[in-house]
Amino acid sequence: MDKLKTKSRAVMAQAERESALLEPTRRSFLRGSVATMGAAATLGATGGAAFAASNPENLPPNVPEWSKMLGDRVTAEPYGIPSQYEKNVHRRTVPWLTPTAESSISFTPIQDLHGIITPNGLHFERHHGGFPHIPKEDFRLIVHGMVKNERMFTLQDLMRFPQVSRIHFVECPANSGAEWRGAQMDKLQFTHGMVSCCEWTGVKVSTLMEELGVKPGAKWVLAEGADAAGMSRSIPIEKIGDDCILAYAQNGEMLRPEQGYPLRLIVPGFEGNMNVKWIRRLEFGDMPWHHREETSKYTDTLSNGKSRRFTWSMDTKSVITSPCPEYPMLAKGYHQIRGLAWSGAGKIKGVDISVDGGKNWMPARLEGMVLDKALTRFVFDWDWNGQEVLLQSRAYDETGYVQPTIDQLRAVRGTWSIYHNNSIHTWLVKKSGEVQNVQVSGK
């Protein structure tokens, strides 16, 4: 992995010298706005319209229909729902990815999200044996093994402990896994949609450790779920006692069943499968357990047939979310390239943008909150001349780790793995405005 950890200072210096080449002024954007509006119809027709055709009767100077009548009363729905005009924004599945409906994956529509928080109903799903419906009255968490006072907790017991709320991403290690051997998926939702970011509320595991007392020699914790698969993972005690949370709430409401109701583990920055849902027990011990999901699964097979052991941390990664295949370019002129970056090692420090397939890089701006082990927004002002371009983003975190190319990853790990593909991603923007998933090789 040392081969992948390079500094970007020289690149950033170069980027500062070149940033003026492609960043338009706000004034030039305003001057070109009328021409842009005219060009949108042409490019939209060839590139695929991002929005449905409007009703002329509702456009100025006409008074639209919704202004001529009373609106609906307070919703009769016991739980609010999105606008009917956003019904296309939902999780999607790829049938050939999972053999059964119970061992399944659904993808977050990250191309349609704004900000860093993923709504609860859009958080990606990954189940190994379907998701159970557990009455909170029947729920119990067992904490045992190398602790001085073994104990069984109800949900009410846990909710009496001091509460914490943290914003963290959760990413499946197979996110982008289909791209290891070449560009395969045709949508952003399918290349990068197994990552979500939420506010998680619950009790820190360290609080329980203080309450029960951990025996000398305890070095590992086994987290086990109550689902039919009995999902379980070994976690180092240093991590479990640092920032891990037993969460019962997500974005201000109790967990949903598919996200682990009534209780799940949050292991910030580690593989999504280690954030065990429907958690039923924590066992403290002096060595890892090497259960099924950390031996036959979730290991990275190398070209020599051996596997990397315990590759928990999700390395620095980024992707451009606009433009993307779902939202093509509709016109020449000013555009704001937008995207998301994240790192399991801490905070994102910066993101570079390339419009020529990685030959030259320019610094993007980080927007909004920059949090530890959370999604971070980046933007870049760009004047598109209508020519074919190769768009890329490259993130680096506060440790100095720089997001690698796919060639750099393959040189170290080969092409047999399906996990931990955090390589630089490339969108081909065609003259028509269409956006296509491609890979750029430096060979």
Main attributes of the structure:
5-stranded mixed sheet, 8 helices, Immunoglobulin-like, 443 residues, Sulfite Oxidase, Chain A, domain 2, globular, 2 domains, 14% helix, disordered N terminus
Overview of this protein structure:
This protein is α+β, with helices and mostly antiparallel strands. The protein has 2 domains: 2-27 and 313-438, Sandwich (Immunoglobulin-like), CATH 2.60.40.650; 112-308, Oxidoreductase, molybdopterin-binding domain (Sulfite Oxidase, Chain A, domain 2, Alpha-Beta Complex), CATH 3.90.420.10. The chain has helices at 9-18, 26-31, 33-47, 155-159, 188-192, 205-212, 237-240, 406-413, and strands at residues 104-106, 125-127, 141-145, 151-153, 164-171, 195-204, 220-225, 232-236, 245-250, 253-254, 264-266, 279-285, 300-301, 307-308, 317-322, 333-342, 348-354, 362-363, 365-367, 376-384, 389-397, 426-429, 435-438. It has a 5-stranded mixed beta sheet. Strands 5, 6, 9, 10 and 11 form a 5-stranded antiparallel beta sheet that branches. A hairpin with a 6-residue loop joins strand 7 and strand 8 (232-236). Residues 1-49 have low confidence and may be disordered.
Task: Give a brief rundown of this model.
The chain is of the alpha+beta class. Helix content is 14%, strand content 27%.
Task: Summarize the topology.
Layout: H1 9-18, H2 26-31, H3 33-47, E1 104-106, E2 125-127, E3 141-145, E4 151-153, H4 155-159, E5 164-171, H5 188-192, E6 195-204, H6 205-212, E7 220-225, E8 232-236, H7 237-240, E9 245-250, E10 253-254, E11 264-266, E12 279-285, E13 300-301, E14 307-308, E15 317-322, E16 333-342, E17 348-354, E18 362-363, E19 365-367, E20 376-384, E21 389-397, H8 406-413, E22 426-429, E23 435-438
